[in-house]
Amino acid sequence: MAEMERNKMALVKIGDYYQEYAQDTSDAEDIKKFSVYAQGDEKVGSVDDILVDEQTGRFRYFVVDTGFWVFGKKVLLPVGMGRVDYTDQRVYVSGLTKEQVENLPDFKDLEKVDYDYEEEVRGVYRPMAATDSVTQGQTQTYDRNTYNYEQEPSLYNVSDRDGQTLRLYEERLIANKERHKTAEVAIGKRVETETARVAVPVEKERVVIERTTPHDVSPIDAGNPDFREGEVIRMDIYEETPDIHKETVVREEVRVRKVAEQDTVTAEETLRREELDIDTQGRPIVEK
User: Fold this and answer.
1) How far from the centroid of its chain's Cα atoms is residue 279's Cα?
2) How does DSSP classify residue 273?
3) What is the pTM assigned to this prediction?
4) Over residues 78-105, mean pLDDT
5) Beta 59-65 vs 74-78: how paired, if at all?
6) pLDDT bucket at 39, cuts 50 / 70 / 90
7) Going by C-beta distance under 8 Å and a sequence separation of 6 or more, which residues neighbour residue 138?
């Protein structure tokens, strides 16, 4: 039977219900570490965590660390009993006394929060929640098998008469782009050697001396022969020598540039959103 009750009204910490809660920047994250103040503007402690209804996702309790007020004790505060002030970053609990906090059971292990534990908590807060003459002085009994949080809206619902604000959350899919290096291209030069051969034709001059005997020889005047002492014929002799040397020229130009190609990446995620449940009794005037 006890296991059935836990399944019907299971509570989980907000960080376990919202898997991305640790990175969330929502108002729920802001409420954690808000200061809690009782009557007389006396600081009770601070909000250490939030307990959520596992079935509906609705906030049920603030886990309050009482700090030095009641040293080393953590207690549960039904969300309907606290008025959240986002401007002052405070949660106000009207009528809460130190004696009542001392009478609350210590919160240490969520697994031990069963119906009997919650009844002990509710028993401390119910006198504070009885604000009209009809409910004051009357003791209402509840069936553990049929009990649900909606039966006590003064403890678990946000009250308009106190001017409280309930903020509903939804998850959104945010698409951003990050630029990161995936590869690198290095283009450099290296020197390679090869043996080149070139053939250059060269000319060399040489002297050819031909000696001939004339066939028709006319006599020379013996009295006046043309003998010339020391007559010399001079002829320049040339030859070509190869002139081979190296020259550096531009063989090829390489231009390097980048082009950007576009692609579309599609992703799917399951998003959650909180909707408002309104539970009314009688014939109230409700403006939506």
Assistant:
1) 39
2) B
3) 0.53
4) 88
5) antiparallel
6) confident
7) 130
Tell me the average pLDDT of the chain. Answer: 80
- Gap between the Cα atoms of 153 and 93, Å rounded: 16
Sequence-separated (6 or more) residues with CB below 8 Å from residue 241: 202
Question: Which uninterrupted H or E stretch holds 37?
Answer: strand 35-38
Of 160, 165, 166, 167, nearest to 285 by C-alpha is 160
**Spatial separation of the C-alpha atoms in residues 28 and 237, rounded to whole Å:** 110
Please name every residue paired with 35 in a beta bridge, in sequence order, or none if there are none: 46, 90
Rg (CA), the chain: 53
What pLDDT does residue 275 have? Answer: 77
- Give the residue from 62, 78, 7 showing the smallest Cα distance to 30: 62
For 191-216, how does the pLDDT look when each residue is reduced to its tens digit (9 = 90+)?
889 898 889 898 998 888 888 887 77
The pLDDT, as a whole number, for residue 280 is 67
Identify the CA nearest to 48 among candidates 77, 83, 10, 20.
77
H helix intervals, the chain: 2-8, 14-17, 27-31, 98-103, 115-129, 153-156
Phi, psi for residue 240 in degrees, rounded to 5: -95, 135
